[in-house]
Amino acid sequence: MSEVFVIGHKNPDTDAICSAIGYAEFKRRTGLPEAVAARCGDTNDRIDFVLNTFGVLAPRFVADVSPKVRDVMQTHIFSVTPEATAAEALGLMDDHDIRILPVLGDDRKCRGLLSLFKLSKFLFPAAHKAMESRRVLSSLDNLAKTLGGKLLFAHEAKREEDLILMIGAMSLESFAERLDKYPREQLAVVVGDRWDIQNIAIREGVRVLIVTGGFKIESKTLDAAKKKNVSLISSPHDTATTASLCRASVVVRHMLNEKFLSLREDAPLSAVKASATASGYAAFPVVDEQGATVGILSKTDFLKNVQRRLILVDHNELSQAVQGADQVEILEIIDHHRIGTLTTHQPILFRNEPVGSTSTIVADCFLRHGVELPKAIAGLLLAGLVSDTLNLTSPTTTARDKEVLAKLETVSGVNAKKFTEKLFASGSLLTLKSAPQAIKTDCKEYKDGDGKFSVAQIEEVGFDQFWKRKDELLGALGEYQRGRSYLFSALLITDVTTQCSLLLAAGQDAFLNRIDYPKLEPGIFELRDVVSRKKQLLPYLTHCLQRMRTEA
Prior knowledge:
This protein is of the alpha/beta class. It has 20 helices and 23 strands. Among the domains are: 3-67 and 307-425, inorganic pyrophosphatase (n-terminal core) (Alpha-Beta Complex), CATH 3.90.1640; 429-551, DHHA2 domain (Diaminopimelate Epimerase, Chain A, domain 1, Roll). 37% of the residues lie in helices and 22% in strands. Helix 1 packs parallel to helix 12 (358-369), helix 1 (14-29) runs antiparallel to helix 13 and helix 12 runs antiparallel to helix 13. The longest helix has 20 residues, at 464-483. The protein is elongated. It starts with a strand and ends with a helix.
């Protein structure tokens, strides 16, 4: 199924979640019904507060959008069990024009693959192996079932045995002479309405007598067979057809290929394509975590186009995007941040505006195009806007944000000022999260030259909780920076009531020494009137990084 994921950045904040939901709604209402709001990170207490307030479900969680085996595998599996007959397998192959069948046990685990080539070699042996064509490895039950005949009398009908096929199409004398060449207990005699041949076969105690042509079998013949313990099958086919079908009564476990390559359904196509296409196998069972077969993949399936596309909101850098974003088509980008280094294979709609939130841009899409804006969506976009602009107090706020917010208040029936107070009181990350979780909740990765760095932000009401946990936060930030080999990692803790922030930084002393804001403690700086990561902090940090490099 074709899907278009409208998705924000890793470690999504309120604006990323709300703009994803809002823009997916806008796209569905303007001709893209397959648009689905998605997220690639967990929600937090404030996001949950917003979603619950407006009665909207969280976007679908999608950790990785790279094409997977499950995206191109054939989910409708034609298969047989190990105890199915070759005739059943051939019938399935012929009906559905397939050349390879997986052989599955009751637990749906693959026991091997059955190929048309292997079946043909078994059923039609080469000329120098002509005697093999007379071998019938089967039970009497399977023999009768394959022939579509009736098992009139049987002794040990379910026992699999190695039978020798013998056609009673000769004189009585010749037939009697040939009987002496084979063990009677292995002979399967195929004959039409030749009563003389039938009688001698019974008298000599062959294993099974197969009477062809659907001819009526006299009661005295049946009685004689019972007395001699000779099994008796009535076949509706002529002698030639019956003889050819007998070989196909063998069960497929005797001819399957037990060596095969199975693939995990969640395996990236890029990781398995080379080894699979270079292998000698033509098809590959696809299994789930329990090893049960959930699909089948042929080499031609690797050529399929995966129908998964993306619309990125609230970011435009691959380092911040969902995993695998570089392997699928990106249709649009809707953002309000600096332009990064992302490249696309074809022209796309790229709407990047210097406003306070992506939710402002999404709301403007509804308003500008005259698309009906549902009350709940208006509420979400209002939440995203006031969250990113601190209710229009952030320096990133523009006249357009103010204009859009006023219209969202009218449509949603929500007072922005009162809602903002409830929003920031709804959950303190420093109270509810461990230090490693708190520093990553709203963290973005940036690339600068050959290096990378991260900047996170936490918005709190006051700094009381921070001072209680400053040591563990600094420790977690340092481990995070070292574990990813970042140039540095920064955490901005903003007091939304005073419009001031504290900056925690971990990295080389050569970088930390370039930060000229007041140092309160090692690694902790006071940033008065700084509340915006995007507009105030990020340019400053990149400037410090450049100074470090030029002054080194």
